[in-house]
Amino acid sequence: MDPPNPNPNDAPSLPAESAARLAALSLCGTRDLPPDFHTAEILDDDEGYLTSASRGGSSTSAWKEAPEGLHDDDKDGDDVSQPSPRSSGYAGERGSSLDDDADPDPDPDQDWARGKKHPHEDDASSSWRKRKKHFFILSNSGKPIYSRYGDEHKLAGFSATLQAIISFVENSGDHIKFVRAGKHQIVFLVKGPIYLVCISCTEESYEGLRGQLELMYGQLLLILTKSVNKCFEKNPRFDMATLLGGTDAVFLSLIHAFSWNPATFLHAYTCLPLAQSTRQAASAVLQDIADSGVLFALLMCEHKEHTYVTLLTTRSDAFYDLKDSRAHIQNALLKSNVLIEVQRSLHENALRVEDLPTNPSSQSASHPPESSQDISSQSLSSEMAIGGPGGLWHFIYKSIYLDQFVSSEFPSPISNKKQKKGLYKAYQKLYASMHDKATGPHKTQFRRDEDYVLFCWITQDFELYAAFNPLADKTQAIKMCNRVCQWVRDLENEIFVYGESTLSW
Predict the structure, then answer these.
(1) Residue 459 maps to a domain
(2) Which of 9, 42, 191, 440 could covalently link to 130 via disulfide, CB atoms 3.0 to 4.6 Å apart?
(3) DSSP codes, 92-127
């Protein structure tokens, strides 16, 4: 690979220069990425695991049409033995010393803020090549705009190579979607003059990685607005990186959410459980500030929505009233005891699988296709039965109509950072399999491996993702899922926001 360009303003943009650079990039054998790109054994704090080295030759192929899908994951309704995300190649094989001597688990909500930027790295650094997941934003002239790791200007040569690959395919009248190189997947997203690229060996699906790039593009537009396209029309070599100064933490927070927040793949948001009367009181407080010119009000607490109200205004100077409005809202919430109820909800209203009712009301219960049979509860060992009834460990319930979801707290069998991240990644793979356009969509899926049993059930009203202990019985698991759905219906007025205009994804 060419050495990095010390002058980012000289990144090649002419077709001849791009073609020359592309010709120097071999797309065969193991030379499509730097030789030590696959020998990844560096700890990536955001991903949480060491990446085991790749042995043997690698193969590379490019797809310009829709991918074939996950053939091994699209089984519908049968016991399918799938490798756990934490026992696959990207997470270190079983029997390794992975995380055996790891430090105490840090708070995942604070992990992203540690400064993962590593500005000293570039594409010539072995540590940079060993990162498990890279994100790049560049312009159609090859100028770097953002990089998750390393300094953007030091990666000018690498960005120009990515631009050359995209241009080469587009010049042939086609569009590049992704490239596989050994365990690595390179996903491309072209948005007019802005290119977004993800290089990952985390075994996430193409659809999942593309969705993450879409969210990054949305974050970019939120910061710079769509007028940035006009800047590129006037000057194709426009340097956008200068406009993003100081926003690294914003992108790092978003990237962190890809591993820790189900909202990023469910395309839904979660709300703080509150009594309906308390939520209405909070909405009334927000309504009172309409005269101040505020257009939109959203009350949040620990990444969970409390309530929101859309307030229309014709004033152009409403932004300058935000400080006064915030003080007014705080005083009003204190007087109405809303904040007291919020604090109580944070400590008492969390859903725990241990609290799953034993005899839910049967008047609105529904059953997935396989649940016609009923068996008596099987006795599990006391160690495996820790959690909820029937071996239930965790669940996520999404209301399709409201675009809102609720998830249970993690029980003791899933207590550390590695286990939680492993389960979220398993949910992501299950979601991608259920919504795979090539083989789906599916209504149910039951999957078992050495870490847990996963069950997914999708109807026109909701999506349910549940994790059980590895010894859980399939019919018993379906029974527990019915009870979870009924439980959520009984609590829906508290755990979901009704009445206000919806937030669309």
Answers:
(1) yes
(2) 42
(3) --TTS-TTTTPPPPPPHHHHGGG-TT-TT--TT-HH
Structure tokens at 12: 């090649």
pLDDT-derived band at 465, boundaries 50, 70, 90: very high
Structural tokens at position 152: 């953007």
CA dist list (Å): 504 to 217, 269, 401, 501: 17, 10, 10, 9
Judgement on whether residues 68 and 211 belong to the same structural domain of the protein = yes
In this structure, the answer to whether residues 232 and 283 fall within a common structural domain is no
Q: What whole-number distance in Å separates Cα of residue 229 and Cα of residue 244?
A: 15
266 within a domain of the structure (yes/no): no
**36: confidence class by pLDDT, cuts 50, 70, 90:** very low
How far apart are alpha carbons 157 and 6 in whole angstroms?
Answer: 9
Cα–Cα distance, 416 to 104 (Å, whole number): 9
List pLDDT tens digits, range 234-279.
Answer: 777 777 777 787 788 889 989 999 988 899 999 998 888 888 777 7
Complete DSSP assignment for 180-202: EETTEEEEEEEETTEEEEEEE-S
- Classified as helix, coil or strand, 16 is helix
- Name the one residue in this structure whose structure tokens are 């998830």: 407
**% of the chain at pLDDT higher than 90:** 24
Q: Does one domain contain both 421 and 442?
A: yes
Same domain, 158 and 282: no
pTM of the predicted protein model: 0.68
Distance of CA 100 to the CA centre of its chain: 26
pLDDT band at 100 (very low <50, low <70, confident <90, very high): very low
Question: What does the alpha-carbon distance between residue 185 and residue 134 come to, in Å, rounded to a whole number?
Answer: 11
For the stretch 412-422, pLDDT in tens is: 888 888 889 88
d(CA 498, CA 271): 11
Query: Are residue 57 and residue 94 in the same domain, yes or no?
Result: yes
